[in-house]
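hi! just following up on the protien thing from before. the input was this:
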Amino acid sequence: MSDADNTATEARDYRDTVFLPETDFPMRGGLPKKEPEILEKWGDLYSTLRAKRQAANAPLFVLHDGPPYANGDIHIGHALNKTLKDFVVRSQFLLGKDVDYVPGWDCHGLPIEWKIEEEYRKKGRRKDEVSKEEFRTACREYAGKFIDLQRDQFLRLGITGDFANRYATMDFKSEAAIVGEFHRFKNSGQLYRGSKPVMWSPVERTALADAEVEYHDHVSPTIWVKFPVVGMTDSHPDDLLAFRNQTPSIVIWTTTPWTIPANRAISYGPEIKYGLYEVTAMEEGLEFEPWAKAGDRFIIADKLAEDVLKAGKVAAFTRIYDIDPSGLECAHPLAELDSGYGFAVPLLSGDHVTDDAGTGFVHTAPGHGADDYAVWLAHGHREVPETVDPDGAYYPHVPLFAGLKVLETEGKKTGKFGPANGAVMEKLIEAGNLLARGRVEHSYPHSWRSKAPVIFRNTPQWFIRMDEELSDGNTLRDRALNAIDATAFYPAAGKNRIRSMVEGRPDWLISRQRAWGTPLAMFVDKTTGQPLIDAEVDARIVAAVAKGGADVWFTAPDEDFLGNHNPAQYEKITDILDVWFDSGSTHAFTLEARDPAHGYKGDRPSHWPANLYLEGSDQHRGWFQSSLLEGCGSRGRAPFDGVLTHGFTLDEKGEKMSKSKGNTIDPATVIKESGADILRLWVAMVDYSEDQRIGKQILQTTVDAYRKLRNTVRYLLGAVAGFDDAERITDYDQFPPLEQFILHRLWELDAQVQTAFKEYRFQDVVRPVIEFCTGDLSSLYFDVRKDSLYCDRPDSIKRRAVRTVMDEVFNRLTAWLSPITPFTMDEAWSSRFPDSEPGANSARVLLAPPAEWRNDAEAARWAKVQQVMEVVNEALEGARREKVIGGALDAWPTVTAPSDLLAAYEGLDAAEVFRTSGAELVAGDAISAVIKTADYPKCARSWRKVPDVGSDADYPDLSARDADTVRYLDGLKT
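and the predicted 3d structure came back as:
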């Protein structure tokens, strides 16, 4: 070995002097495994947060939970709904509020009844073979099982609420409160029993309210029926009924042949022009003999005559003269077959009749249509025939058709047309009064539960009046419309939607003929037909239900309730309440009962009305409306100040999800594969006010966005490792321009975030934050300050400023995102502060940043700086592709730009901004960059190629800055 080799000094390895970010926070989330651990650590986080806010005397915010139905696993719609509610709860906690949110469940009604009926059928037992008490017990146990299941699934989503004190409409105290609310309507005169046609489900054997009906395309038979004219007033031409002419017939058109036996009148439009038409020729060469013939005379609306006669295979006809239907009288088309139809059929004027389709006349069966019923009563008629029983079959007294079913209610043909339609058509043919028939596809009402068609059927039911004047001089409709105008809607379009529904809705049908529900617990005087109003009786009923549940109404003897009243004089009503009345009453026992204004003194205070109700847009006709009507009817106003609605969740193609299509997304699967925070972030990123889409590709986009957020937080954790208050810069003037700009962005973004949270615009929280992370932080701040963070002296003002700002960024990001991705932000906070109490990040209050952080001048400066940066970055990238440089530190660009843009660089190190070793700025007309190589030695520590490398004899391979830093660090070691 030569002497030269012996004296050679090995180059020093400076890696241990570079301050690279260090953190235990992993790059990969591992959320499916980590989130359950965080949940266990949190424990009852909701109670912890409430206790902290109450200790601080925080103002109270109340979100009332619209109860999901307790019958199955949660689906993606549940996940969206409950996550949005959790955003509200957590964001209000973040804004410094005490938040009351009690999750609840809707337990009564048909879906559970159906499930229990299925279970009994599997055991070979029919429902009518089971006692009501046994059946209701089975329903209660079924609902309880799914409350527990759904609760656990909601908790896994990270939902924060008072689950320990959840409410359910089947709880005894809930049922008692619902009965008490019903009594309010009974005792205030708003309740009445009426016999009118209501939408009836033969499959479910119960009346349905508008909110329980949905419309689907349906193929129905259509018939054109002849009603022979048998009488007229003197105002009509004498020859109308002359013997020398065929007896004219009024022609009606209907899609419900089964209602013909219930016909009692024909309605006409007072503004419609009608004519008498005579057939002169029929079509020839037909495969069947038509039911019209030459010489037949028909009365039809002029506008529709040609279409009607064409349907009857009429080839030629003549219009004889005008006809005024007023004063005409017809025979029932089945009168010749049975004397039971031997009554006169009058002509009634009705504004509901149009000549847009049909014949210009409306076959009027007052027991099977709302318009039919209204026009029948309007003309002084009172008796409404009952033709169809609860099972959808003709009553025994109906001539010709007794027992025939309109709809099948059992077996494989459930929901299909029964034999009634065909039988009626055959009898019309036999009577010679069928002109034509066909089939039509049209929108038809179906039960939203059974999906089977419904019919209009005249039944005695209980209603709440919408238009009866109340004690304050307003009607219930008036009160509801006034309350809508006083309510804040998110989005605002919801106001017009629910307003139009309330303006046009009928009286509220609240009785159902089922077993599982809260009863209309009242007695009716058999003589007067009026409900018994007795406060002591009501009190006994409510007390009994509170003690033993609603079952007691069906099992206890009447004497237990009636006191001194004679049981023989009263009818006990055993119908159950519309489930919408149940859920519409939840505000009374969930909120009002815990309002300190009503004497509550516990540690779970609420207030009435709620600040917010939040549900899907379909609830404008459901829970929102039933709560509105219940509150306005019982208390004079709505039980809410604000209403937020969200759309429905569709698949990636925008199609409705269904198991048959195989396009459903199971939230449990998403959580198992990716984590709840991914699902929550998806909810935050969509515009919930519209219908949203979800699928594998969309979720992958969400995962990508999550990684950006996680990596940003991870970098910050590493960058601020070991940071403490001694290092913090507190004098704003000591912050360099770039730090002042980032603080300005924090000030600006915080205002946006807080406003968005207050207005429930969660998309406007997460999207700007993601853009801030990818733009201002990753592409600008982190990149520009990497050299200073890694290589400057730890005690330098600049590096301290960098770490101070990064600490502020970390604090804001973990707060802003804590309502959205609480698991990840908790993990980040705990990683930095391992001794903090569980859920500490969720317990923070987001305070407004210092006013001095606002710096419009720096914002304007950096807008110009970044204009030039974009051009330089493109030029650097081009030089890398062409292998002129290996990296940006190999470059020394010459940058030309207009003077106003170059002025923005005053006081800045252009090379640091461009992340190059040096830079030359030249004034010019346009922005351009010429990439030259840096022809200076390379610093062995920072890799910058600068002229002062080697200027310090003790560190000949370092730049002056790096030599100073290493000397400082070496001094610390000694």
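Residues 1-9 have pLDDT under 50 and may be disordered.
The first strand starts at residue 60 and ends at 64.
cheers
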